[in-house]
Structure formats: C-alpha cells, structure tokens
UniProtKB/TrEMBL annotation:
Protein name: Chromo domain-containing protein
Amino acid sequence: RRTLVDKVLAHSGRCADSTFQILWKSGDTTWLPYDRVAKLGVLKDYFAVLGIEHVSEL
C-alpha cells in the first residue's frame, strides 16, 4: 500500500494525547491525533529524530 504521508513535522501534547503535524506528499499539512498516525512508519522516523522509541516518552 502506498502512503501519501511524507513525514511528521511536529507534535503538541503529551503521550497518547498528542497530536501530530503531518506533511502530505501533496505539500499540505494537517494535525492528526495519535490514534490516526500510530501505525505510520513516518511516526517511528519522527520518534528516532527525537531520540525516543514510544509515544509514552513524549
């Protein structure tokens, strides 16, 4: 399955209550809650940049 998400740019909030700013391949950005982005590979990439492994560390 092809993803239309380019990357996670930022987050707001803590732990599983966080929302994430998503950059779409179209160039648009939107804010989505954790439960909508939890399974996206780009979220793991974002966590790696922050030096964390799990949403509970936010």
